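Something for you to look into today, if you have time. Could you write out one complete protein record for me, on any chain you like? Leave the record below and I will have a look.
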Amino acid sequence: MKQTLETSSNVWQVAWQDATFRKKIIQSFSASALALVILPFFFDFIQSRPGATLNDWLLPQVPAQDVSKSIFTLLWGTGVFLLWRVWQQPKLAVPFLAGYALLTYTRMVTILLFPLEPPAGLIELADPISNQFYGQTFITKDLFFSGHTSAVFLFAFSLVKPRERFIVGICGVLVGILVLVQHVHYTIDVVVAPFATYLIHRLAKKWAEV
C-alpha cells in the first residue's frame, strides 16, 4: 500500500512538471471550486420561485420509499473509486474536473430554463455530503436533469478500463432507478442525465486534450 502511494505521488510529481497540465488542472479546479461556491445561492433562488408540475406517467406507479442509504453508498462509493484512479493516473484529473464544472454549470442553465415543482410523494434525500453544498434547506427543485444520476455517469465516463466503466455505469443506472423510487426526480430528469453527461464529458475531454 505504501509503495503504491509513493508511486502515485511520483507520477503526480512528473505530471506537474508539464506546464500545460498545470495550467489545465488549475483552470478546471478553479471552475469547479467556483461552482461549489455559487451553488448554495443558486439553490436558494430556484427554491423560492414557482415552477410547473409534470404529468409523469411512471412515478405514480412506483410507491415512494426512502432509499437514501443505497443512493449515498453508490454515489460516494463510485466517487471515491474514481478519485483513487485519478490519484494513480493524473491524466484523468483534468477531463474529470472540467467535466464536473461543465456539468454543474449546464445543470444550472437547464434548471433556470425549466423551472419545475417537485414530484408528488417526494421523500427528502439524506446525503450529509451533498447537502453541505445545498445551503440550509433541503432543495427539491434542482430537477432537470438529475445531478445524482449524472454524477455517477460522469465517474463512469471518466474511467479508462472498459470493465470499470461498465460497472460504474451500472451503478449510474441503479442510482437513476433509486431516485425515482424516492420520487426526488421526474422520469425525464433521469432519462436525459446519461446522454447529457456523455456529451459534456466529450466536450471536457476534447478541451483537456487541446
The chain is about 70% helix and 0% strand.
